[in-house]
Design brief:
single chain; 396 residues; alpha/beta; Rossmann fold; 15 helices; 13 strands; elongated
Length: 396
């Protein structure tokens, strides 16, 4: 971690709000060591009118004592956030209560400074503030989104989505977001051996306050360059179609920050047209059995009829074994009226081990991983390099 002497702090001004003068002074001293200019110190929680005037003034950061009166502090956070998007609102607190942290983020706070104050954590927060200010008008990256949609429970779409995200991050060298839209029983966190504190449910519950700062605070990073927005830890009865507007907003925000977004869609459910139209490619994942293929045929027809996205539909046969499936590839394509784009081989032991240990990255070294790598290369516009053939040469 960088020390405060190694972090370059751009010119920044701050206003401190809190009744406890000693705590304000400690914070002011810590900010002073970072060359942050203290524009004012306010010993009470301002009214809505005072907050509006404060937000319109000349300051980059407003830092609010959360502990003196949490509810009043949250009201001030809301007032400031609603009045000005240019001012970064932070809170400082001794509390580590995750529910209180979530309330702060929902209210609009973009940083929580934990006491006792860490110079490095404070410096990083100020740097993020300056970066946010400098990039407020930055053009969106325009990241491409890829939707994995299982036609039937147990088809393995979540495993493919997780492995695809890891593979495309490796092959492209770009940042990748992975979104678990299985709002009731999602598995991506387990498959990647991650332990997120928050989930997509927290984003949907605060859809009216969703921005990149809030959304990024809900995500958890994997060492391979993938950032996960996980499903809820506990069962929640939710219908993704009912949240389609919020989900589209979320995908748009991710497209501003990531080159690629991989979405694991709810199994076999109708998705809102707005969600389907966001996808660069829709991977329809099925096994080779009559019920699964029947579901695949109906879902592909749904995509064609509802949103005219049939050209973006890629049929994926998972756990494919031509010797044992009993249904030929030509029969499958005839039944679906759709060519099969990808056949992922059956490697049950490798996939089971990855699921049980969270070592999905290890799949890259299996036959399954080789097919997923080819999918990732195609998705990011690359071709697989063939090894050079060995042979005799006249000159060395």
């Amino acid at each position: 971690m960088l020390s405060t002497t190694e972090i370059r702090i751009p010119s920044t001004s701050a206003v401190l709000i809190g009744a406890d003068r000693r705590r304000r002074r400690d914070l002011a001293d810590a900010l002073g060591r970072l060359s942050v200019r203290i524009r004012a110190e306010i010993g009470h929680y301002p009214s809505t009118e005072e907050a509006a005037a404060l937000a319109s003034g000349d300051c980059d950061v407003v830092m609010i004592d959360l502990d003196e009166d949490p509810q009043r502090a949250l009201t001030v956070v809301e007032d400031l956030s609603r009045t000005s998007a240019a001012v970064t609102v932070m809170v400082y607190s001794r509390s580590e209560d995750p529910e209180l942290v979530m309330q702060c983020m929902r209210a609009g706070a973009r940083e929580l400074i934990q006491e006792p104050i860490s110079g490095d954590a404070l410096a990083s927060a100020i740097v993020r503030t300056a970066s946010r200010r400098a990039t407020a008008d930055r053009k969106r990256i325009g990241g491409k989104s890829f939707l994995f949609w299982s036609v039937k429970g147990g088809a393995g779409a979540s495993t493919l989505a997780a492995a695809f995200a890891l593979s495309i991050a490796k092959e492209s060298g770009q940042k990748v977001a992975l979104v678990d839209l299985n709002l009731e029983l999602g598995d991506l966190a387990v498959l990647l051996d991650l332990k997120p504190r928050f989930s997509i449910a927290d984003a949907l519950d605060s859809a009216d306050r969703m921005d990149w700062d809030f959304l990024s605070s809900l995500m958890v990073d994997h060492d391979a360059g993938v950032s996960l927005l996980a499903a809820p830890e506990h069962f929640q009865h939710r219908d993704s179609a009912a949240h389609s507007a919020a989900i589209c907003t979320m995908i748009h925000l991710l497209q501003e920050q990531f080159a690629y977004i991989v979405v694991d869609a709810p199994t076999g459910r109708g998705l809102a047209p707005a969600i389907l139209t966001e996808a660069e490619a829709i991977y329809l994942v099925s096994q080779v059995d009559i019920p699964s293929l029947r579901h695949a045929q109906r879902l592909s027809a749904h995509v064609a009829e509802r949103v005219n996205r049939r050209g973006h539909l890629h049929m994926v046969l998972n756990r494919y074994d031509a010797r044992q499936d009993g249904i030929g590839l030509d029969e499958v394509e005839k039944a679906l009226s759709l060519p099969v784009a990808w056949r992922v081989p059956n490697d049950y032991s490798a996939v089971r081990n990855a699921a049980n240990t969270g070592a999905t990255a290890e799949l890259m070294y299996s036959p399954v991983g080789r097919t997923i790598r080819q999918m990732a290369l195609a998705a990011c516009g690359k071709t697989e390099q063939q090894p050079a053939k060995k042979g005799w040469r006249l000159f060395g």
